């Protein structure tokens, strides 16, 4: 799985709010909570788990990264949080009524195996999301403007990878053992403070953060200058509007 070591604070200050935008869709997909149990796999800093808990779910947040779990404990002290993650979850078969994995399967080494593991611990329903159009387009523009030559990103082996579209996501989940898979897309605009967006890069979050941390001083200077220029072109009333699309899948 993609490395997220030590990035909890930077993630919480930046992309946590973006990723939690699927909360209403996931809640609607599962129907009334009625005190049923829900496992949120790859819970990050706990925003989605806390959102679902307010709907009456008995939520367990499962997160392997310590810096994320520390924020869950501090910001959402009523949540149960467990150290664990894909590809092997520390729970028995059918342990939870429903299971979620929000923007997790796009980071794992074996998506089908991990999809099957989510289904294994779900008694009634399972849901997952990936990016159809991710935040990477913004950072690719910054990189190109800064004239930074980087190697092609690592790809999964063809037999492990899948097409990162709604249809491709649905096919992969079916191959991973999900039944009655329904996938839809959600597109929205994330209005983000440039300072928060920069924290994600400087703090090492995701691909842009790993790229920035690997640059030398001159390259970092060009990268920051390109970032500031692009933000100045896009900013509206102090915020940068970035459009994203998620594929949201539910299996029964």
UniProtKB/TrEMBL annotation:
GO molecular function per UniProt: S-adenosylmethionine-dependent methyltransferase activity
Spans traversing the lipid bilayer: none
Transferase recorded as keyword: yes
Keywords, in A-Z order: Methyltransferase, Transferase
Annotated CDD domains: AdoMet_MTases
Domain Methyltransferase type: 39-123
Pfam families given in the database record: Methyltransf_11
InterPro entries for this protein: Methyltransf_11, SAM-dependent_MTases_sf
Claim: Transferase is one of the keywords in the record: yes
PANTHER family associated with the record: METHYLTRANSFERASE (PTHR43591)
Protein name, per record: SAM-dependent methyltransferase
